[in-house]
Specification:
With 522 residues, the chain is of the alpha/beta class. The chain has helices at residues 3-14, 24-40, 45-59, 62-65, 70-85, 113-126, 143-154, 170-184, 201-214, 229-241, 259-268, 289-296, 302-312, 315-325, 334-346, 350-355, 364-368, 372-383, 387-391, 398-408, 412-434, 447-461, 469-472, 484-487, 497-503, 511-516, and strands at residues 101-106, 131-135, 157-159, 188-192, 218-224, 246-250, 272-276, 284-286. An eight-stranded mixed beta sheet has the order 3-2-4-1-5-6-7-8, with helices on both faces. 34% of the residues are buried.
Length: 522
């Protein structure tokens, strides 16, 4: 959604690199480009004006003039202001002191309330809560059935005493749901209300009546992030007619320009609490303004990536794989590789995972071109191997490769490519895991050889004889030993260049890296 804005901002900041000092003209030109980028992203005009004014004021102050790198400081300023218009701090749900906590969802028809109710229920379930979904949308055809299907997929119970399709009283259903939760010990009640194609008095009155009947702890306004500035107008109407505590953005994975997401928090004064960015029930998470700003500026979102990995990866399996890479638990085989690859896939599409890495904004085309079916082909090739072949790929000879290719429906060259890439990747991972970098100073267990080699070199050199008789008769001064680790530590700036050269005298790249750089044997 933010690709266009990200590209425009990246191009703007690129013009600032290499400048030791920014003039007022540079700042004005940068702010003008930022203004155009935000307006093209469909951000509200009032928000754009405030944003650009704040950036310009800070850029012309002492904050920038005293910076060592003005270009990076401008990016920091823009990042801070983006976090501000996105809401500032992360807003979490308020839970009732006495269960159940009642959460009411409101919004227009088509904004994704019913699906989002299931996503929120699944998220709460994973947090250790016991949610109950309430089918209070009795107007839209098959809305009750849809919520029941969503609830079944999420593994949560649905309270649906009325069939819907225009039959039943939604206010009574919402009121009875609270009693049902108290009786059956559900600690969270999620009320899915009806929507309309547009804002009208009947919609507002029904939503207000449901709110008064259940006295919710949180009223969440669900808005489609793809409808642009109309989302802001709808949010204002709901704020005046019903009132709400937070905003939930849906369809953040769409191809719209994202102006609603950047405008709604500042315009309405209500924080964005959750965001939905996919069709799966797990494509839902807490909205973090700082992480979203980081993504927009192309700096990635490592915290979200780490959190997803922690939820997805099996700690025991990962520990076993790591032990094998260090040579402490057998040999790392294709079975271990397959398990790790499947865990990565559970985190979501590979394009989304790579998109969270810093610096990947400049590789959007390559990331978008990732073929997810390639992973399926790799799985098919590995599953076509015998357990012995997976554990010990070295035994896979020509005849075995032909059999594996027939079994997985691929060419023999693809099997060869997979096996060869696996050996290369395993060698690199084992080297990184054991940190066996020959001659690399400063790493545990690696400095002793360098120091011994240096001592031998010094012993071979002996003592130089001066031509001055007075100096020649002076006792020899002991030469200070050079610790290679210290050469790269805090005292490196005081190290004599000759000593540094001696410390690096026996440094060599590992054979794999030498071949990688195209200089074998050097």
């Amino acid at each position: 959604m933010f690709d266009t804005l990200q590209d425009r901002l990246a191009a703007t900041f690129k013009t600032l690199r290499g400048k030791g000092r920014l003039s007022d003209a540079d700042i004005d030109a940068t702010c003008r480009e930022i203004r155009i980028a935000l307006l093209e992203a469909d951000v509200a005009l009032a928000v754009v004006k405030d944003f650009v004014a704040a950036v310009k004021e800070r850029a012309r102050g002492a904050e920038l003039s005293g910076a060592l790198n003005p270009a990076q400081q401008v990016i920091k300023i823009v990042n801070d202001e983006l976090i501000g218009i996105l809401g500032g701090e992360t807003r979490v749900l308020r839970f009732a002191k006495r269960p159940p906590t009642v959460i009411m969802l409101a919004g227009l028809q088509g904004s994704g309330k019913t699906t989002l109710a299931g996503k929120l229920a699944l998220w709460l379930k994973e947090q250790g809560h016991s949610p109950l979904l309430v089918a209070a949308d009795l107007q839209r055809p098959n809305a009750v059935t849809q919520l029941q299907v969503v609830g079944q997929r999420a593994g949560v119970h649905v309270f649906a005493p009325e069939p819907g399709n225009g039959v039943g009283d939604p206010i009574r259903v919402a009121r009875d749901s609270v009693s049902e939760a108290q009786h059956k010990l559900y600690d969270v009640v999620i009320v899915d209300t009806a929507g309309r194609l547009g804002v009208d008095s009947e919609l507002m009155q029904q939503a207000a009546d449901i709110r008064d009947a259940v006295n919710p702890d949180e009223v969440l306004f669900v808005v489609d992030a793809m409808i642009g500035q109309d989302a802001v107008n709808t949010a204002r109407a709901f704020a005046a007619g019903v009132g709400y505590d937070g905003v939930v953005l849906t369809k953040l994975d769409g191809d719209a320009r994202g102006g609603a997401a950047l405008s709604i928090a500042r315009v309405t004064g209500r924080p964005i609490m959750f965001a939905s960015n996919g069709e799966q029930l797990k494509d839902f998470d807490v909205f973090h303004p700082d992480r979203m700003a980081s993504r927009i500026l192309g700096m990635g979102d490592m915290l979200t990536l780490i959190e997803q990995a922690e939820k997805t990866f099996d700690a025991e399996q990962s520990a076993k794989a790591a032990a094998k890479l260090t040579g402490q638990g057998g040999e790392f085989g294709l079975n271990d590789f397959l398990q790790q690859m499947q865990m990565v896939r559970k985190m979501g599409p590979l394009s989304k995972i790579f998109g969270m890495l810093p610096g990947m904004g400049e590789m959007k085309e390559q990331i978008a071109g990732i073929d997810e079916k390639e992973v399926d082909r790799i799985e098919a090739i590995i599953y076509s191997m015998t357990p012995t072949e997976r554990d010990n790929p070295k035994i896979i000879d020509g005849s075995r490769r032909a059999r594996i290719a027939r079994g997985s429906g691929v060419e023999v060259s693809e099997v060869n490519s997979l096996v060869n890439r696996f050996f290369e990747a395993r060698k690199m991972m084992m080297s990184m895991a054991s940190r066996k970098m020959p001659g690399m100073p400063g790493l545990p267990g690696m400095g002793g050889g360098a120091r011994k080699q240096q001592a031998k070199q010094q012993k071979k050199k002996g003592r130089k004889v001066s031509g001055n008789p007075a100096k020649r008769n002076q006792p020899a001064q002991p030469q200070p030993a050079v610790d290679p680790a210290a050469a790269f530590g805090a005292g490196a700036q005081d190290l004599d260049p000759k000593q540094l050269q001696e410390a690096m005298g026996d440094f060599q790249l590992p054979p794999d890296l030498r071949n990688m750089f195209g200089k074998p044997g050097k």
